[in-house]
Write a structure and sequence with these properties.
Layout: E1 3-7, E2 10-13, E3 26-28, E4 37-39, H1 42-48, E5 54-57, H2 63-71, E6 78-81, E7 84-88, H3 92-100, E8 104-107, H4 108-112, E9 124-128
Parallel strand pairs: 2-5, 7-9, 8-9
Antiparallel strand pairs: 1-2, 3-4, 6-7
Length: 152
């Protein structure tokens, strides 16, 4: 997992695949047109289709931390609603990046016991303990059953 949209205009990304020399190709196909074209920049492509996204880097700016936290499912967060996500507590650098982007980090136990609550419109990341779950090769997003949600 290298990408998760976490709010209307925010996403968590694994940076090497989105910026720099190892950036992956982005293919774009428009309805009612033939063929597919390669676009050099994912974020510019999203802006061009009126879906602007700003990245939050999994693992921060240090490559070794990015790799470790991507392997530990830092990009595999689950958006409960726009701006409220579940993420593993062990990905400290990514949680720091989220905090720096205005997300309040809440430990799941504090939310479950009522010691902390979510405020309307607040951006928050609910950090969950999941050291055994990652052994199965997934994160909160991959291991969540479909939910019925209101349209945005």
């Amino acid at each position: 997992m290298i990408f998760t949209q976490i709010d209307r205009e925010l996403c968590i990304v694994y940076p090497p695949h989105f910026v720099g020399p190892e950036r992956l190709a982005v293919l774009h196909r428009r309805k009612r047109s033939k063929g597919v074209k390669e676009v050099p920049n994912f974020f510019a492509a999203m802006q061009a289709v009126d879906q602007p996204l700003e990245p939050i880097f999994c693992g921060g700016n240090q490559r070794t931390v990015q790799e470790r936290e991507q392997w530990a499912s830092a990009c595999n967060s689950f958006a409960v609603r726009p701006g409220v996500i579940l993420s593993y507590d062990r990905n400290d650098a990514t949680l720091g990046e989220l905090s720096g982007a205005g997300f309040r980090v809440i430990e799941e136990v504090n939310l479950l016991t009522g010691d902390e609550t979510l405020k309307d419109g607040e951006r928050a990341v609910i950090s969950i303990e999941g050291s055994e779950l990652v052994r199965g090769g997934g994160g909160p997003r991959c291991m969540t059953l479909p939910l019925r949600r209101d349209d945005l």
